[in-house]
Amino acid sequence: MVENFSEWFHDILEEANITDSRYPIKGMAIWLPYGFKIRKYMLEKIKELLDKDHDEVLFPLLVPEGELAKEGEHVKGFEEEVYWVTKGGKNDLNEKLALRPTSETAIYPMYALWIRSHIDLPIKYYQVVNTFRYETKHTRPLIRVREITTFKEAHTAHATKEESDEQIEDFIEIYKEFFDSFGLPYMISKRPIWDTFPGADYTMAFDIIMPDGKTLQVGTIHNLGQTFAKTFNITFEDKDGEHKYVYQTCAGVSDRVVASIIGIHGDEKGLRLPPMVSPNQVTIIPILFKKGKEEVMAKCEEIKNDLESAGLRVNIDERDIRPGKKFYDWELKGTPLKLEIGPRDLENNITIAMRRDDGEKVEIALDDNLVDNVKDLLEKYDENLSKTAWDFQAEHVKFTENMDEIKGLIEAGNVVSFNWCGDDECGKKIEEETGYDILGIIDDAEDGAKCILSGDDAKYLTLIAKTY
Ligand code: P5A
């Protein structure tokens, strides 16, 4: 694993052409071409999953102050973080306009207009937009930004509480599949009440343990109950003719997904990208000498075509630099599989394949099975990335029944699970005494288990960690 993760992460973003953070506004960066492609494939996946039964929409960036201020809890949660637009040219605006920190207050007044009857329900919309949060904690590229450039937010409305609860389960399944497709491990927990999304009844969160042992919240799913429905008067006429408030949920992921892919799978040589998001899944490196150059290039083109016809993303590195430098570059950029072909390989009718994860070289015959063999290697590579990452997580969640052990375990790079009585005051005291954050509840406690602090009967198995 990487020694100094923070420095490694910073360097790799620049070296691999992911983002440039030198833009003169803190917390706002530029997506560079290679990073932009990773982002694009990440978004394609979430859209593919959501498009099965959600519709994509696009709302304006600005939210009138009057709407943002309507829901008391919500506005309290965000008031320190909102950027305001107060002027149009030289003129003061009649009403201040907020740059959306998230879009509940932009979307729900419109839901109130659109939803009339039970036949209009459920509504399941999502959008992918930039949102703005004047974060006061230390900003970090992709991890804690002030312009969240890749905010996927879904907002649903339902006729019954049961349906909204089912929607929460659906989102959990969708996010599982989403993170699985990049081989990312995760811990799902129910956030404690004091860390619930402002205005929500409860929040379910996905957290990932980064290589430095700190956890990153990579996705959240909120059951909003009827709070926003009552604030924004979102009602419908039910089958029985009665007017009722809808039940709502929302769920979001961000740039942090890309940060996790980079952080979780990377090693000291650079990125190790899962095929799902890798701009090139196979990189062909021709070994060229004066003699036989055309034949080697022709073969490279032929292989590229064959692999592309099978749906793979392939590039040939034709740059006029030493092959060693090309290998180094593609290792840094995390291409899953490199294929090397020189004149002698051509004579032997083989190519040398090298996986980015274990660096092992295998000969593959240049015959009809080439495509299948390449796909097979990619699949094994993908499985190995995922397994390595899940093993890392399993090794870094440690259970204790002793308050005094929490600090040592967390400082050694772990997340700690413990039994908790579920009392809010007690939970906050655990956070205060240790200096760490309770992530949330992962399960019911076993029979007879006692709370780590109060000694009362424990209700929940809970996680505590150093968080980003
Ligand atoms: C859910 C979508 C919401 O805003 N409203 C619509 C709900 N939830 S949230 O938890 O506040 O944010 C959703 C996810 O966005 C990521 N995130 C961030 N990523 C990068 N930089 C930030 N400053 C930032 N703030 C939040 C988190 O992954 C969070 O779970």
TrEMBL record:
One protein family per Pfam: ProRS-C_1
Annotated keywords: Aminoacyl-tRNA synthetase, ATP-binding, Cytoplasm, Ligase, Nucleotide-binding, Protein biosynthesis
Species classification: Archaea, Methanobacteriati, Methanobacteriota, Methanomada group, Methanobacteria
Species this chain originates from: Methanobrevibacter millerae
Reaction(s) catalysed by this chain's protein: tRNA(Pro) + L-proline + ATP = L-prolyl-tRNA(Pro) + AMP + diphosphate
Chain's gene name: proS
Name listed for the protein in its UniProt record: Proline--tRNA ligase
UniProt note: domains: Consists of three domains: the N-terminal catalytic domain, the anticodon-binding domain and the C-terminal extension.
GO MF, one annotated term: ATP binding
GO biological process: prolyl-tRNA aminoacylation
Enzyme class: ligase
Function: Catalyzes the attachment of proline to tRNA(Pro) in a two-step reaction: proline is first activated by ATP to form Pro-AMP and then transferred to the acceptor end of tRNA(Pro).
A single GO cellular-component term on record: aminoacyl-tRNA synthetase multienzyme complex
Assembly with partners or alone: Homodimer.
EC number: 6.1.1.15
UniProt superkingdom: Archaea
Keyword hit for Transcription: no
PANTHER family tied to this protein: BIFUNCTIONAL GLUTAMATE_PROLINE--TRNA LIGASE (PTHR43382:SF2), PROLYL-TRNA SYNTHETASE (PTHR43382)
Chief location category: cytoplasm
Record family assignment: Belongs to the class-II aminoacyl-tRNA synthetase family. ProS type 3 subfamily.
